[in-house]
Amino acid sequence: MPRRPSRQVSGAMTTPEGARLRLRRDTIAIAVAIGVLAVVCLGWPSGDRLLARLGTPWAGWVSRVVFLLASSHLVMIVFGARRGRDLRRELVGRRSAEAELRHRADHDLLTGLFNRAAFLGRLERVVDSGDPLVIAMVDLDRFKQVNDTLGHAVGDTLLAVVAARMRECVPPDGLVARFGGDEFAFLLPGGARLQESRDCVRQLLHEMRKPFPLEGLVLEIDASVGVVISVEPSAAGHGIPVDAPSALVKQADVAMLAAKAGQLGIVEYSDHLDQQDEERLRLYGDLRLGIDAGQLCLAFQPKVRMSDGRVVGAEALVRWRHPTRGLLTPDAFLPLAEQTDLLHALTDVVLEQALQSCAQWRRQGLAVPMAVNLSARSLLDTGLVERIAALLDRYGLEPGLLELEVTETTAMANPGQAVQMLQELAALGVKVSIDDFGTGYASLAYLSRLPVKALKIDRSFVQRMTTEPTDRTIVRSTIELAHNLGLAVIAEGVEDVASWRCLQGWGCDEAQGFWISHPVPPAEITDCVRRLPGTITTMLTDTRAGVSPPR
Q1: Would 448 be classed as within a structural domain?
Q2: For residue 545, is it within any domain?
């Protein structure tokens, strides 16, 4: 729904200063008019002749006084009527202004929907009445990318169109409100109409997943929905008892966050979600403190050239030395960082430590390129290129010693922004590669148009290729196609000699995995560089490990 226009009331209601000024002018005009009449009637010598001409049957002072009073009354009537019209206009204006203020107090100006305060007020009344109800919290997915890429004006227009679609999904006795940003709330009837309300929520999600034609663009977003089904205490067992409005909203919000974290679309609230949310909040607080306290550290997994086993790079893998949980791998905390405001801080810490280690190896005579992973949100960070350039300058490193890995899903999540960011990084001299290739939906033809130099075949294909013919075909074909497009190929997840021999026979350029080396602390990279070529040669010549690659 387009933005609701404000009522034009300025012409119907004057300001208090203007009203007082007009009243003062009218008072002066009345006084002057009555004064003139008094002079004419009482002080003018020919007043009797004037009265006679006007047809008055009297003469003398009495008639003059009567005429003066009548004339003054007429003047008062004229000015009184004018004042009455002004007061009526002022009253209409005040009522219109009050109605506008009430509307602004209860509605969101951008979308015309009810606002948070109005929603909570309505919710409180329903809770007090004891009627069963359904609350749905809706958060738009990928809306921030629209704002960051196309600007806030397009984002505002999109929100207005989204609100119009939402309004169409709500029954007449339902309520939809905008809580702020890209978060919306629904209040729907429960009880006998519970199924109808559930269908409404499903229809809402379906509508949010349809394309949005907008200003010459076709935008696609998604939504995460958290649902709370509240019932009367006597009906316990079919939902959760009617609780305080703030508690119900919090529960719906918890369910919505669960839907967003798991990309589940719709999640209905249950008690175990609260436990997960409390755990998530504790972990969030610990991670924020851990970043500031320097608890993050890096391990490095060597990448070797398959032609001779020499170390040609290292991938930085973040770890968290939690004070009570011990050493945590990225799976335990990285998804939380990517869903919150901690991602940029975590990325900066990883880049800082990675380039610091690279500079230290350089001082030891080892030019080992450093690979660091970037998330989709990092490609929307407009200050990232500048910060990377500053770090390279601080540590005196050539840009070519830094390799940034982005997944193909990341590269496709926002192609326009991704291409621009990757081009800026390539112009800086930083190497860019595609990570986890094969798990997304990008084609090699598309990736070849990006400023990338290499791609990494996902470990899931590499680990199964010696036993699964389909995965073997995918890996072999990917290597051939990538080489035809001028891209180097890196295989990750090499965990046995059979996989190495297959990849080497197919011309894969580089490899990394547990068979080659586990991730090691920064101080052990020097040893890895020196011993890995001989170690790999020894393992390959061991007749007990010799396996011919399948053809």
Answers
A1: yes
A2: no
Total residues belonging to the chain: 551
Q: How far lies 140's CA from each of 177, 226, 496, 526, in Å? A: 14, 12, 44, 48
Q: Which of 498, 517, 518 is nearest to 506 (CA)?
A: 498
Q: Which of 80, 106, 132 is the last residue of a domain?
A: 106
For 319, the enclosing helix (H) or strand (E) is strand 311-322
User: In degrees rounded to 5, what are phi and psi of residue 58?
Assistant: -105, 165
Containing structural domain, residue 437: 298-540
Q: Which amino acid is at 502?
A: C
**Dist. CA 336–CA 222, nearest whole Å:** 20
Contacts of 348 (CB under 8 A, 6+ apart): 387
Same domain, 385 and 493: yes
Q: Which two tokens stand for residue 245?
A: 């409005």
The tokens describing 496, both together, are 């046995």
Question: Do residue 37 and residue 156 come from a single domain?
Answer: no
What span, in angstroms and rounded, lies between the C-alpha atoms of 179 and 169? 18
Structure tokens at 120: 């909570």
Helix (H/G/I), strand (E/B), else coil: 103: helix
| Cα distances (angstroms) measured from residue 212 to each of 86, 221, 296, 354 | 49, 8, 41, 42
Do 488 and 410 share a structural domain?
yes
The per-residue pLDDT for range 23-65, each reduced to its tens digit, is 677 777 767 776 776 666 655 555 555 555 555 554 555 555 6
In a domain, 441, yes or no: yes
Domain count, the chain: 3
Least confident of 381-385, 452-456, 545-549: 545-549
Amino acid letter for position 62:
V
Where are the extended beta strands (E) located within 411-519?
Answer: 431-437, 454-457, 488-492, 510-512
Grouping H, G, I as helix, E, B as strand and the rest as coil, residue 456 is strand
